[in-house]
Design a protein that fits this description.
heterodimer, A: alpha+beta, two-stranded antiparallel ribbon, about 40% strand, B: alpha+beta, eight-stranded antiparallel beta sheet, 15 strands, globular
């Protein structure tokens, strides 16, 4: 039995080792958070949920958001930073909301990059859409940041005269094949 | 072929050393054991020896070979290493037809199983920890402290046998050790049945168990459930046998029950079963009962004790990763444990009502046991047959872990006893029994199983002799079985030794870098919570509770939790104010929290990326507290937390008597600032925590964010392969 007693003592020590004492700390070194927006050399996609999104919205966007997406007005413009203009596509993810569509009917979204037309897809039903189309390198080479624009027709005009275009999640110029 | 020879040598050495040690134990206890029990008991001693070598930093091939040679020599001196084939006299009580049935089925399935066990190891849990950890121990030659994989805290008695074999024959040798136990178990059943005068029942039980698809699958990879079933049966056989000496029987049973627990926590069922049987056998003689139970429990502690002590020292909890409220520690929290147990309880999304069909036919719960197990209720007829009652009791005991996890793997020991009870019931109808065995064998053959089991259920699909004999090169075979095999090899090429990689990849067995997975450690979960801020706005600490009260002079103040709706209360930053100005944090302050005191400082580091968190869904008396070290006047606190989390709190100050007093306060919700360069801040936090490498899988949402915002993360894509990407944080 003495062996068993020795073992029991060893296990008891093990259990005691597992008991945690009161633990206190002095204040740690204070961390410095980087200030301002991220340095903009390359930000090929802007998502409406990004905390610094306002920095990339040039015009015609509603200034508040309900969820993680935002409403455009009729001619929104976005600043998109790309470090390398090769193999880019213009990309957008947005929704045409059913309640709005019932008033407007089919919607055409004319997409421009640096003022030059890229495509004018027409959406004949409400729903979520992703659009992407390659962009010639020459359209981007001399412009930094690039300006991506939507011209939406028709738009919804509310009783308060607020104009609503599409409900936008993300827009940008990612590398071809990355989406 | 050289590799094949090493695998066979490793397996042979494990078996011969175990048998030799078993022989010595037999001599020491002056007991007579059958060959199966001798092997199982000896393997326990070998496991303990390997643990001791590894704890001493001596986990080397040369040490293991020397130890094996010494044991085999000593066993031979003790008359031990007689390889006694189960032929001749052993078979005399068995009817010819059953002898033929046994050998036909046993050899056919053994041929299939051997091809699996010898093939390169590619099982998920084998890669993640059963062999993943063993390969780490072999590299390091000791038990390193591992805070990135909670599986390292599970007892690993069988993995010690894997380590012994791995040092000679590498990964496949580990699976072969598991197969050794599986292949030996039918002979253990036959030996018991022969002794019990139930030879036919023995053959039926042995074949029902051995041919079951999930048993064959699990027993031929580097898992431990086949071994635990063997241990459970050895325990049963010891307890069921009429004892020449009850104390000796109790000692041996306790030792085996403890070995089971040291192999897998769920085998605590064996300890309870053993104690229950002794109590049943001896309840009329209270003195003998107390004595035998004391011996049983003492011996049951022998094998698990080293693991419990290792856990107490390394993980701050002897039974880590469980009971973390009792043994609070910084490595595994109660919330992590709750999440883990909850995942296990809801295993594969099936309900208890689904279990009978999924466990037997469909295989949705980790592989099918075979349709014949639908006849399990027949086993109840064995209750009046000698040995039947105890078999049913054992089945019930080993079914108990199914309450927490319905995986068929965990129930393999229970299947063994169900098979035994079914066999004892069916023995009275030999023709029916023969038909049952034949149907079971046919329905368990892989192409037949494929016809009724779910497409992706866990089972053997075909024999793999080309891979087993290395005619198919190992790399080629592994590449076809492990999706991230090549990427794992890439980690080895690009990531410097000693660096940690944050990833969801599980392959630890074929690459040496330390992987940090969110689901496998508190450390990983903490890093994942920081990363989640980049992907989900709701978890960002942009909700500020501003709590104002009449100016108060106090030495210490705390923010205490009243309720959080079962969510984890988190405080990213706690600040103290007087007259609208923040009271500066001074070095003399003492910060503490309850529970999870280890993270208290994270609420005072001026970083929204880190947070103190209760890490307990239902904490008692949770608070975060500042002792100013002197009297301080304050009139307001602010506590920042996740946007989508709403908790109610109260403020308390410490009186001169040391008691805490609640003070009247009103709380207003505000918006806390959040850095625009949050990705950069998260990356800094990862680096400060020791992680500069991230490996993303094709479906990882972090992969898309890193692609889109590499510049903000300060991340460079170092390598990519089939959708997997390796990033370095600059």
């Amino acid at each position: 039995m003495s062996r068993l007693a020795g073992l029991a003592v060893a296990v008891a020590f093990g259990l005691l080792a597992a008991c945690s004492p009161d633990i206190e700390y002095a204040p740690p070194a204070q961390k410095a958070m980087p200030e301002g927006p991220a340095p903009l050399r390359d930000r090929p996609i802007v998502r409406m949920r990004d905390p610094d999104v306002d920095h990339f919205l040039l015009k015609d966007m509603l200034s508040y958001s309900i969820g993680q997406w935002r409403w455009t007005r009729q001619r929104p413009r976005f600043r998109i930073f790309v470090a390398d203009p090769k193999d880019r596509q213009v990309y957008a993810r947005f929704a045409i909301i059913d309640g709005i569509f019932r008033t407007t009917g089919p919607v055409t979204v004319s997409i421009t990059v640096n003022g030059k037309p890229v495509a004018s897809p027409r959406y004949a039903a409400a729903g979520e859409y992703e659009f992407s189309q390659p962009v010639a390198e020459t359209m981007l080479a001399e412009h930094s940041p690039a300006i991506v624009g939507f011209d939406i027709d028709p738009v919804f005009v509310g009783s308060d005269r607020e104009v609503l275009g599409v409900y936008l999640d993300a827009v940008g110029l990612p590398k071809s094949g990355s989406r | 072929m050289k590799q094949v020879v090493y695998i066979l040598l490793a397996t042979g050495a494990t078996y011969a050393t175990s048998v030799s040690l078993g022989r010595m134990l037999e001599k020491g206890l002056r007991a007579r054991l059958d060959a199966f029990t001798r092997f199982v008991a000896g393997s326990a001693l070998l496991s303990a020896a390997v643990f001791a070598f590894t704890a001493a930093g001596l986990a080397r091939k040369s040490i293991f070979i020397g130890f094996a040679a010494a044991c085999i020599l000593a066993g031979a001196v003790a008359g031990g290493v007689r390889v006694k084939l189960p032929i001749g006299k052993f078979w005399s009580p068995f009817p010819v037809v059953w002898k033929i049935a046994f050998w036909v089925v046993y050899l056919t399935f053994s041929w299939l199983y051997l091809s699996q066990a010898m093939a390169p190891e590619a099982s998920p849990d084998g890669l993640a920890y059963h062999v993943g950890l063993v390969s780490l121990y072999a590299r390091e030659q000791h038990f390193p402290r591992i805070e990135t994989n909670f599986y390292a805290s599970f007892p690993q008695a069988i993995e010690m046998l894997f380590l012994f074999a791995f040092s000679i024959g590498k990964h496949s040798a580990a699976a072969m050790v598991e197969f050794l136990f599986l292949a030996a178990t039918p002979f253990g059943i036959l030996a018991w049945a022969r002794r019990a005068g139930k030879p036919v029942a023995g053959v039926i039980a042995a074949l029902l168990f051995y041919a079951a698809p999930v048993v064959g699958r699990d027993g031929t990879v580097a898992y431990v459930d086949g071994a635990t079933a063997a241990i459970a049966f050895a325990l049963f056989a010891i307890l069921e046998r009429p004892a020449e000496s009850r104390p000796r029987q109790a000692a041996l049973a306790g030792f085996l029950a403890g070995f089971g627990f040291a192999a897998k926590y769920t085998q605590v069922a064996g300890i309870l079963f053993g104690a229950g049987v002794l109590a049943f056998l001896l309840w009329r003689d209270r003195r003998a009962l107390v004595r035998c139970l004391a011996i049983f429990c003492g011996c049951a502690l022998l094998m698990p004790a080293p693991w419990l002590i290792k856990n107490a020292v390394y993980a701050g909890n002897p039974v880590s990763p469980f009971f973390n409220r009792w043994f609070a520690n910084p490595y595994v929290s109660p919330s992590f444990e709750t999440d883990y147990l909850s995942r296990n309880r809801n295993y594969a999304g099936f309900t208890r009502a689904d279990a009978p069909l999924e466990l037997t036919v469909r295989g949705g719960l980790d592989g099918p046991a075979g349709p014949m197990f639908l006849l399990a209720p027949v086993a109840l007829l064995a209750v009046r047959v000698p040995g039947g009652g105890m078999a049913l009791a054992a089945a019930a005991a080993y079914l108990a872990p199914g309450q927490g996890n319905m995986s068929a793997r965990l129930l393999i020991p229970a299947f063994l006893f169900i098979a035994l009870a079914m066999a004892l019931a069916l023995e009275r109808w030999p023709r029916v029994a023969l038909a049952v065995v034949a149907f079971h064998a046919i329905s368990s053959w892989p192409p037949v199983t494929a016809k009724y089991a779910r497409q992706y259920s866990w089972r053997i699909e075909e024999s793999t002799w080309a891979a087993a004999l290395r005619r198919t090169p190992q790399e080629e075979y592994l590449r076809s079985r492990i999706e991230d095999y090549d990427f794992g090899i890439m980690l080895d090429a690009y990531v410097p030794p000693g660096a940690r990689v944050f990833t969801g990849i599980q392959n630890r067995a074929y690459q040496p870098r330390e992987l940090v997975a969110p689901s496998q450690s508190e450390y990983g979960a903490r890093l994942a919570a920081a990363i989640e801020q980049a992907l989900s706005e709701g978890v960002r600490p942009t909700r500020r509770a501003g709590i104002s009260f009449a100016p108060v002079r106090t030495r210490a103040i705390r923010l205490a939790l009243e309720g959080c709706g079962g969510e984890l209360w988190a405080v990213s930053e706690l600040r103290v104010f007087l007259g609208g100005r923040e009271v500066p944090r001074r070095p003399a302050w003492r910060l503490s929290a309850q529970p999870n005191p280890w993270d208290a400082a994270l609420a005072f580091d001026n970083s929204p990326i880190t947070a103190w968190n209760t890490r307990d869904y239902h904490p008692r008396n949770a608070f975060v507290q500042v002792d100013f070290g002197r009297e301080e006047s304050v009139d307001r606190l602010t506590a920042d937390g996740p946007r989508d989390l709403s908790c109610t709190v109260r403020v308390e100050t410490r009186e001169g008597s040391g008691d805490w007093k609640r003070i009247a306060a009103r709380t207003a919700g505000e918006r806390a600032p959040y850095p625009m360069q949050f990705r950069s801040a998260i990356a800094d936090e990862l680096k400060a925590s020791g992680v500069s490498w991230i490996a993303t899988t094709p479906r990882d949402p972090l992969a898309a964010d890193l692609m889109e915002h590499a510049h903000e993360w300060g991340a460079v894509n170092i390598a990519h392969h089939s959708g997997y990407r390796l990033w370095r944080l600059e």
